[in-house]
Amino acid sequence: NPYVAEMYKMALEGKLYSRSIP
Predict the structure, then answer these.
(1) Quick check: helix, strand or coil at residue 22?
(2) Can you give the pTM of this predicted structure?
(3) What is the DSSP letter of 6?
(4) What is the spatial distance between Cα 18 and Cα 16, in angstroms, rounded to a whole number?
(5) DSSP state of 2
């Protein structure tokens, strides 16, 4: 499912971004 994959990617990027910047 491309929708789920995109959501997962966005969530992963968001997590990484938030983790990178406190």
Answers:
(1) coil
(2) 0.42
(3) H
(4) 6
(5) H
